[in-house]
Amino acid sequence: MNEQSMQQCIDECLNCHRVCLGEAMTHCLEAGGQHTEPTHFRLMINCAEMCQTSANFMLSGSPLHAKTCGVCAEVCTACAESCESIPEMEKCAETCRRCAEACRKMAQMVA
Questions:
Q1: In sequence order, what are the residues at sequence separation of 6 or more whose Cβ sits closer than 8 angstroms to the Cβ of residue 35?
Q2: CA-based angle 11:86:34, to the nearest 5?
Q3: What confidence tier does 111 reach under pLDDT thresholds 50, 70, 90?
Q4: What does pLDDT average to over the chain?
Q5: Where are the alpha helices (DSSP H) in the chain?
Q6: Helix axes 65-84, 38-59, angle to 10 degrees
Q7: Are 35 and 27 in contact (CB under 8 A)?
Q8: For residues 64 and 53, what is the distance between their CA atoms, to the nearest angstrom?
Q9: What angle do CA 15, 17, 22 make, to 5 degrees?
Q10: Of all helices (H) and strands (E), which one includes residue 24?
Q11: Distance between CA 53 and CA 71 in Å, rounded?
Q12: For the segment 2-12, what is each residue's pLDDT rounded down to a tens digit?
């Protein structure tokens, strides 16, 4: 694992945290309907939290960061799929897909 790969993953996680939380709290709450359907809305919040947790594990040098990155990849993939099924959620879906890929690579590097 190299430092550049880890920094890229940290950046993707922090960006995904920002986008998911921001979209949930502004766009989704204001749009209502499908955007605030409980399963979708919870998934967006869970995704934001998991991304922040993974970034924190990497930033702290935790040897367990590969485990959090693996879970983060799963959560981000699920969030991307949910966002793709709802109009006007393309930015969130794309951000989640990028983060999932970075986290998947990070989890595989360490495993």
A1: 27, 28, 29, 41, 86, 89
A2: 115
A3: low
A4: 96
A5: 3-22, 29-31, 38-59, 65-84, 90-110
A6: 150
A7: yes
A8: 11
A9: 95
A10: none
A11: 10
A12: 789 999 999 99
Question: What residue type is assigned to position 65 of the chain?
Answer: H
CA distance 7 to 50: 17
Q: Going by C-beta distance under 8 Å and a sequence separation of 6 or more, which residues neighbour residue 16?
A: 47, 48, 51, 76, 95, 96, 98, 99
Planar angle of CA 75, 95, 15, nearest 5 degrees = 90
What tokens were used for 111?
A: 């495993």
39 within 8 A of 82, measured Cβ to Cβ: yes
Max alpha carbon distance in the chain (Å)?
44
- What's the length of the chain? 111
